[in-house]
Amino acid sequence: MAMARGRLDDAAIAYEEGRQICQRLTDADPTNTESQRGLSVSLIRIGDVATARGRLDDAATAYEEGRQIAERLAAADPTNTEWRRDLSVSLDRIGDVATARGRLEDVATAYEEGRELAERLAAADPTNTEWQRDLSVSLERIGDVASAQGRLEDAATAYEEGRKIRQRLANAADPTNTQWQRDLSISLNKIGDVATAQGRLDDAATTYEQGREIAERLAATDLSNTQWLRDLSISLDRIGDVARARGRLKDAAVAYEEGRAIRERLAAADPTNTEWQRDLIISCVKLAETGRAPQDNYARARWTSPRGFRQAAGWPRATRG
Length: 321
What we know:
By secondary structure, the chain is mainly alpha-helical. It is built from 14 helices and no strands. Keywords: Repeat, TPR repeat.
């Protein structure tokens, strides 16, 4: 709870206390697999706090200690799917830290091992939606590494495999699950990014628009959800980028202005949030680069005024010319 609320000091204390308890239980009875697993999970959580604080060395150490325990448990009983999933999570976290440190080779190894585990679990029970989502996350991370290394075909393949899983979850498993809807929107944006890098601007525009539609539906259902609003602003940025690359500066300006209106609302809501402030600056720069600075009053009312917030879900979309 403390971690979710951003109280990192409180979270660090609680997780460390939990780790110490599990360590004592493990020392007292090394054969107790429950306390061993508790210790592994505690280490992952301690690593999460260290990551959030930017202490990547500490995070890497905690994740590695957790991985070693999870690996021993998984090796002792390969049929225990919970332990195998724990190991997959540990490997993903190790890969995340390696990514933050710029160690792409280490990243690729950790993510690939995690993907193999996630793939076996997903194949063992195709009805387990948690395992299916785990696999889609692993594929996304592998795609991110491939994209960073310039291996665009490999990135496109990984992203597309992940998108198919997320499409099934979002459409068939539970269309009301907002996390799965958001996952699908993210996959579409990443596929669009690869298409843009490959010069396939028509494909990129189509994919980005599909992602935007999902992001807008989510944002309209809960206008207090800042994550969904920011997601929508990112989708609008992508749409504007492709329009500008195609020479459609008016369309680009309209998309950028709508995204800027959202970011203006977020930046005003929390002036201490540097990420949101930076987003707003980016939107302003992009607008300037189109040679236009339209004041899209419709977009502004839609996303910045209290009345617009109340009515956004029912208003039609602004016309893009």
